Each structure stands twice: as structure tokens, then as C-alpha cells.
Amino acid sequence: MYDPDIMAAMSGQLDHQTAGDRIALKAAVQKQIFDNETGAVLDVRRAVLITVTPPADRGRAVMEVFDAERWDGVAEHFTTVCRDKGIALEVIDGRQVYAENAGEAGR
Q: What 3-state class would DSSP assign to 30?
């Protein structure tokens, strides 16, 4: 399957991290389709993929896609709770990875 982000990374137009983040976010949005709480239809450019990874003895990683507006309302609290409990939090924000000039190779 053709993916413009893979092609851009292979041609040196997009850095590999941004390409990977875009691909992961697109796949998660395609799978989930709606925000689990608000019911909003997800748009990859305004979606936020979070991955929560607790220490190995306390469970497994969990991923969820948020609509950007909902994420903005809980991000600070969520980040603080994860930090306080020693839980790793990875955030891929579509507003950042799809921003103009995001991930341009050589920047």
C-alpha cells in the first residue's frame, strides 16, 4: 500500500520519527474512528494518540486516541498523574506532526 509519509521519509523530505508518528496516528484513528468519550469523529490532524506504559510488574501498555479538544482538557492532569505514579506516557499530537514544515528533513 502506498503511503505518502513513507515515500517522503524514503526520499529524505520527512524525518523518520515524524513519518512513524504520522503512520501510527493514522492507523489508530482508522481503527477507533470516534472519540470514546465525546463521540466526535476523529480527524488525524486534530487527534492525539497516547500510549500509557506502566512499570512491567503493574500491567501492560494501553493506547487511546483523543479528540484534541478533549485531550487539551485533561492533558495537564493526566501527565501529572502518570509522572507521579511512574507511568511512561507517550503523546503523538496530530496538530504537531501535521503542522506546516513538521518533520522536514534537515531542520
A: helix
Count Cα neighbours of 6 within 13 Å in the Cβ-side half-sphere: 6
- Terminal C-alpha separation, the chain: 28
Counting Cβ atoms within 10 Å, is residue 56 exposed (0-12), middle (13-18) or buried (19+)? Answer: exposed
Burial of 100 (0-12, 13-18, 19+ CB in 10 A): exposed
pLDDT digits (tens, 9 = 90+) for 8-20: 888 888 888 898 9
How many distinct helices (H) and strands (E) make up the chain?
4, 3
Greatest extent of the chain over all pairs of C-alpha atoms, in Å: 42
- pLDDT tens digits, 84-102: 999 999 999 999 999 877 7
